Amino acid sequence: MVVLAAVVALLGSLFFALGAALQQHEASGAAGPSMLTLARRPRWLIGTAAVAFGGGLHVFALSAGPLIVVQPMGVASLLFALPIAAALHGRRPSGGELAAAAVVGAGLAGLVVLIPSDAPPPSLDDPSALCLLAAAALTAFLCFTVARRVSGPGRTALLAVAAGVMYGACATITRVVVDGDGHLWLLAILPVPVLAALSLLQRAYAAGHFPVAYATLQLTDPLTAVACGALLLGEPLPTNVAAAVAAALLAGAGTVALARTTPLTG
């Protein structure tokens, strides 16, 4: 089941990459893109539909495997963004891009191999679930507040961190709902933090520096979810900590390099 979860999560990453490219194209250049305005743009709607489909695959993956397997697979969306970006710009990927993609793939493969295949059924009581969402919302609000006072890549990164923390917390709650002990009422409130994260991400795209935004999101989201999975859900961590850290650093380094070389700008 863990292998199936990883494969489905990778497929979802393909749709995330396509959707992100289309969303950023429509959101770029606006200081504070209105969701209502973006919703009237067909290309943005197609991108959002791609992201939503990828999200559905992601939910299925969460029902089949632990957070520490599923969430890091999101980083692979940068691998899919590489040929998508190259096609959009009418060229082939450069040698540097392919090298960075290979580094990311090696790091992700190492993480999957090192992570234990068994995980206990996720369980989270209602107060803990609400506290998790509240903590994520507070963190996102602080990042958004600071982002309003800075410009350039710093603003983009802070907005992407805010979105990534919200998405990571929502992924944790989703895992509890789809493969845990119920709490179906959480599905009624999840759209609120998800839409908040989506709005923050569009602002990050609009601020420019798309590679910074996408790379930061793809690192913050899984780190948040993995931390929540280990601390709140009791999911196992790799027994070989040094090798896992090395694989994570390898994936992170490749992600940063790939994000800097992939021309997904407006």
From TrEMBL:
InterPro entries: EmrE-like (IPR037185). It comes from the Bacteria. The chain crosses the membrane at residues 53-86, 98-115, 127-146, 158-178, 184-201. Coiled coil: none annotated. It comes from Planotetraspora thailandica. The keyword Membrane applies. This is Integral membrane protein. Keywords: Membrane, Transmembrane, Transmembrane helix.
